[in-house]
Amino acid sequence: MGEAERAAFRAKIDEGIHWASEARILELLAGAGFEDTWRYYRALLYGAWLSRRAG
Length: 55
Hints:
The protein is an alpha+beta fold. The protein has helices at residues 3-16, 22-31, and strands spanning 34-43, 46-53. It has a domain at 20-55. It is built from two helices and two strands; from the N terminus they run H-H-E-E. The protein is elongated.
């Protein structure tokens, strides 16, 4: 990949992917009424959590 291609690729990532920290994801899940959340998978840009609806 040339310099221009790398710059275009980086710009596409910066504009198209909206990052959320694990703390923010946990906060969102708790705010939506979920508890006992744990991350069971993480690779590159992907993560997966299991959670249980409160109550």
